[in-house]
Description:
The protein has helices at 16-24, 36-45, 66-77, 84-108, 121-147, 162-175, 191-201, 204-216; strands at residues 5-9, 30-34, 55-58, 61-64. It is α+β, with helices and mostly antiparallel strands. Strand 3 (55-58) and strand 4 (61-64) form a beta hairpin. Helix 4 packs parallel to helix 6. The two termini are 33 Å apart. The model has no long low-confidence stretch (mean pLDDT 96).
Amino acid sequence: MSKPELVYFNIGGRGLPIRLTFACGEVDFTDTRLSFEEFRKQKQEGSLPFGQVPLLKLGGKTYAQSYAIMKYAGTKAGLYPNDPLEAMEVDQVVLTLEDLVTPINITFYPQRYGFPEFKDEKEKLAVRKTQNSEILPPKLAQIEAHLSKNKSGFAVGSKLTIADIMIYTTLATLKSGRLDGISTSITSKYPTLEAIYAKVHAIPAVEKWLKVEAASKK
Length: 218
């Protein structure tokens, strides 16, 4: 079968978890990075399934939806369980992380979700501060309580899975300082989450790929 081609922007976003999954599994793939101008052009031309990225091109077909692609990458990389119950455990962690960040995502594009556009940055910042103090902590506490039951140091089972990678990239975003109104220390009260973040960050393949990401921004 041909080499998979991942198509996304030259940012982390929804592409980074997939790139890290391929990297950790030493899966050879083509990392195609679109400019925003190229994306808009392709979207207008109707060449993007569902009008979005990331995409995975493989065997003459094009596939959409970031988690579907990440599960494929995880399977190829040996980071997605064969056991259906363990696979379900991985899915529930990843999808709960998606629940965690959905309120933040809405603040970027409120009109997509049926909300009026913010009047100004001050109004958006007020919403983010409410999320920081009232919305995110309870969900983080739920995730922490769930993960703390597994004593292996990983999210699911006793080895690295895509759940750990998604925890890492989610916390990296929250810690980044790029989200105005969201404290960079918001996850500091959750030791299990922080430990998984640190464990994934220390994986040589992750460290190597992060250097690739940094170089791509220069």
